[in-house]
Amino acid sequence: MYYFGLYHWRSRLRRLAAGGCALLGVGAVWRRSPSRWGRVLAVALALPLLVRAGRAGAKLLRPPPWALERYKYDALAEELPLEGANSLLDVGCGTGRSLVALAPHLPKGCSVVGLDVFDDRVILGNAPLLARRNAREAGFDVTPVRGDAARPPVVGGSQDVVTACRVLHDLPDDDHGRALEELRRVCAPEGVLGVLELPITPEGVESDPETYWRERVAEAGFSIERTKRVDRRRGGEPYLVIIAEPNPGQPDR
Fold first, then answer.
1. pTM reported for the whole predicted model
2. Of 4, 83, 124, 227, which sits with the fewest C-beta atoms within 10 Å of its C-beta?
3. EC annotation (predicted)?
């Protein structure tokens, strides 16, 4: 059984707690106030907190901490030469959702490193131990490494495949280029980069997400091989998959 943690759990639990307190307050006023208008006023004052609590509760388990939507990772894996990979670095592995999803596509004996800041303020349980545990449940070993995507403590040119699944958009805007340059540095000369991204661009950027991320990848020293859009089953703009190889004409920065 996998556990991938609760996203944004602190803010959502705070909203649930505020809604619970508001509900208790309304109940107390309803029992003690002889005035109908006093009761109406109490409900009106508590309503915004109750609405926010309801929304937080609805989102708390989305996605559920044990569920895995494999289709988007499968779409990435189908474009990568994983069958011949001896080493893979997954940037932003978190509690192991992307690692578990990529597991069926990895060859036996492939050395896997999962890089993440492992910040449990965003995801409950986000830690190297949980990433390692989930990987073992999926049938392989991972070496979790604590580090920043813009400064990964990984030997240059050491990784046959580098993946970044839904993580680049979470970095500060100024770190997008730096992080991709670092992924270029750790990628083997004949290696491959696979990016799975949400349709998100920094605030103030006028270009569409596909154009923006393709430009950032190319500027970091990669040659883009192909791009694919993956329809999202819950609706919204499609995910973006970019496959790129180190550009031999552009040295590491």
1. 0.90
2. 83
3. 2.1.1.-
Closest-CA residue to 66 (of 96, 32, 39, 88): 96
- 219 within 8 A of 213, measured Cβ to Cβ: no
Taking alpha carbons only, the member of 171, 92, 94 closest to residue 127 is 94
In the chain, how many H helices and how many E strands? 7, 7
- What pLDDT band is residue 30 in, cutting at 50, 70 and 90? confident
DSSP state of 150: T
Examine the pLDDT at 251 and tell me if it is beyond 80: no
Q: Do 138 and 103 meet the contact criterion of CB atoms below 8 Å apart? A: yes
Of 103, 9, 19, 20, the residue nearest 62 (C-alpha): 9
